[in-house]
Predict the structure.
Amino acid sequence: MGSKQKLLPRERLPRHVAIIMDGNGRWARRRGMPRQMGHQRGAKVFREISLYCADRGLQVLTVYAFSTENWSRPQKEIDTIMDLLRDYLRDALTIFRDKNVRVHFLGDVSVLAKDIQDMIRETEESMHVHDGMILNIAINYGARAEIVRGVQQIAWDVKSGKLPLDAINADLLSQKLYTAGQPDPDLIIRPSGELRLSNFLLWQSAYSELWFSDVLWPDFKVADLEQAFWDYDRRNRRFGGV
Ligand code: FPP
């Protein structure tokens, strides 16, 4: 980051920032490289940005790493992303040892390889006591599936007589999502020029501010993030009021 960029005061930062890490494939293709190289570079940027956010004092950072639709990609590309996830999980405890970060996974991880599931469980358990930034990593995540899962849990509780019908409200459904107990995202960032949410945090984003950029994720810098923070600070959030 240029040393001249002034930082938004910490108390004005968004509490929860969510990022769709998009553009890895295009970044690689433009350089005549295989798409996997874009993911490798994207993973490096993810490490830098997540560490920076922890130091900057964010409460929650959520990243979209793999969607329920991404299984349709070539197997080689899927394998690369899963290997990058393995590398990350192997390093996570060391990376965040002094940062007090708590890693949490959003999505159905039960279909991932057994060794990855084991590492996810160990990481979540050993970081459970940390009370610094929550780092949500969305893997095999889709917002519609997340909402359906929450509705099923509620329906089950009603059916079994544990929950009266009139106790169902928005807060209750929020508590059935992977992000239960966390503030909704204040700011959602999508690089790479695409202007859509792509089944990401659909329930939680009801009042999120959106920030788009043409920069591809592997080129995304701390300075871009700080730019997003300043733009966020200028928004007038009314939450439906006047
Ligand atoms: C979207 O770019 C990116 C993904 C589907 C994968 C994101 C993964 C990483 C950043 C690295 C992995 C990190 C972890 C921790 C698993 P795209 O491939 O859709 O890009 P394109 O739109 O240019 O094709």
